Amino acid sequence: MSLNETNSPTHLTLGFSSCPNDCFIFDAMVNGRIDTEGLTFDVYMDDVESLNHKAFENKLDITKLSYHAYAYITKNYQLLNAGSALGNGCGPILVGKNKDVNFIITSLQSKMTELTIAIPGTFTTANFLFALAFPFAINTIEMNFSEIEDAVLRGDVDAGLIIHENRFTYEEKGLNKIIDLGEFWETLAIAPIPLGGIVIRRSFPDELKQKVNRVIRRSVEYAFANPNASKVFVKLYSQSMQDDVIKKHIDLYVNNYSVDLGEKGKRAVKILFNKAQELGVIQKIEEEIFLS
After folding, report:
1. pLDDT score at 5
2. Is 11 assigned a catalytic role?
3. Which of 189, 223, 248 is the last residue of a domain?
């Protein structure tokens, strides 16, 4: 049943990334391990910046996206309480080959900086945090997150903003941490880092939104209770990753906030959007963004 046939469809399009944390979260609901309350899903897997753009184009019924990107499309989508990637010590890291960290930081703080920085997408929360820390560093180049480490190693860029599993691999590849932007945010905001959330079409009936939220929460809870159940699905899309890196990735990005944002998680999202509004990055949000 399509969206055009009824305002409350049972067959929905669902977008999420191939990263271990998303596969871990959604495995149970897309692979028939839990009660989906009659809902079925067409799955679209892509990197987070591509999912951001699909959301901008209003292409998906439900999708993972960056919290930064969500700020631009609150009129079309509402944030679900389940499924988020939000927490402490899980933020993006700026890395480089040059061991003179102080020189790079000083250069990035200069209005005259000529350093080039690889970013995993303009609308990623990672890029928002980078801009918050270094507002003068505008010489950025967009890349798929998986290409950034190699670009820094080749010298194509002066530094790179890494996310996802790359935070576990950059040191063994010979790269150095310049700044942990997650730590920067946590010190600035005294709040966990809102990286990615799950949104649903605002036009759907509240009953359907609540049903989808219950199903996603059930999927996360099943994954926590049966951590080995999703291994095949996770590994299918993470073949180049070592098992210990996969586990670290899931442990870092899937937590209690993935079950339910709660008041602390919602406060962190509000702080992020307030900071973006103060900087003039986004307009004031008029809609209720959270599911009641």
Report:
1. 39
2. no
3. 189
